[in-house]
Design goal:
alpha/beta, TIM Barrel, two-stranded antiparallel sheet, 13 helices, Schiff_base-form_aldolases_AS, schiff base, cytoplasm, diaminopimelate biosynthesis
């Protein structure tokens, strides 16, 4: 279930900053049609930091509803307050989500023991599968391999999204955990190398606009056809890089709007729209990727976007 191309889904908003559920439905259908293996709803790319709690829950549940069992939905449930993370996790109990993605507590800078106790308490509060999420560049703390190994002994902690971009982490963690524990890359630029070292998939920002291509890339890697995977990866290389030219999800939201996947590229403050200079940068990255397979949801025909 937690393998292959897993999209870190944006949360579309209208020009007034309200969640655009029509566009959200379109995105879910696009990923089902494109072969995406799972959706992360309300992670970092989904702007979880600026949505109110009830909005957060509603976006996840609407995504589950639209998915209708066609594609697993993973709910972002992280918080830097342990009790808040537990409360949010429990709101998705028996609601059809496939699991939860929980980020390390940001700003607090806990010790490794503090991290262990945080995730342990969350896992013990639910029977939903838990995916740990380590992204020190966002949170200011690093979940070290030894702590991952301790947490992997807890029955429903089943995976780690490792977004440091440090490929040495793969072998370090593999040496400490059971082989059934799933390692996922959270970094598009190094994701293929991560899989070649034993990772099982990529939680991808690029997949928001290149869903079929990322699904194929991960499929080839899973099958051991790294020549084919690397060809695709090279084609998408500029997207992997320049979708982070400003704070995520600013560039990818602009690209989604540019491709007609969403109606507006609205973000909530303090994030701002993509600057004019970087619009040109992202446009060039789209051009370098060549034709991207975008599905029209008003009819069952594949459209090809060619910038």
């Amino acid at each position: 279930m937690f393998t292959g191309s897993i999209v870190a889904l944006i949360t579309p908003m209208d020009e007034k900053g309200k969640v655009d559920y029509k566009s959200l439905e379109k995105l879910v259908d696009y990923h089902v049609a494109s072969g995406t293996k799972a959706i992360v709803s309300m992670g970092t790319t989904g702007e979880c930091a600026t949505l109110k709690r009830d909005e957060h829950v509603d976006v996840v549940l609407k995504t589950v509803e639209r998915a209708g069992g066609r594609i697993p939905v993973i709910a972002g449930t992280g918080s830097n307050v342990t009790e808040d993370a537990i409360s949010l996790t429990q709101r998705f109990q028996n609601k059809g989500v496939a699991g939860c993605l929980t980020i390390t507590p940001y700003y607090n800078c806990p010790t490794q023991e503090g991290l262990y106790q945080h995730f342990k308490k969350i896992a013990e509060s639910t029977d939903l599968p838990q995916i740990l999420y380590n992204v020190p560049s966002r949170t200011g703390c690093d979940l070290l391999p030894q702590t991952v190994a301790r947490l992997a002994e807890i029955k429903n902690i089943v995976a780690l999204k490792e977004a440091t971009g440090d490929l040495t982490r793969v072998s370090q963690i593999q040496a400490l955990v059971d082989e059934q524990f799933i390692l996922l890359s959270g970094d598009d630029r190094s994701g293929l190398d991560f899989m070649q070292l034993g990772g099982k998939g990529i939680v991808s920002v690029t997949a928001n606009i290149a869903a079929r291509e990322m699904a194929d890339l991960c499929k080839y890697a899973t099958q051991g056809d790294f020549a084919a995977a690397r060809g695709l990866n090279q084609r998408l290389g500029s997207l992997h890089q320049y979708l982070f030219v400003e704070s995520n999800p600013t560039p990818v939201k602009w690209a989604c709007q540019r491709l007609g996947l969403i109606a507006a590229d609205t973000l909530r403050p303090p994030l701002m729209s993509l600057t004019d200079v970087n619009q040109r940068v992202v446009e060039e990255a789209l051009q370098s990727a060549g034709p991207l397979e975008i599905y029209s949801l008003s009819r069952d025909a594949a459209l090809v976007f060619n910038s």
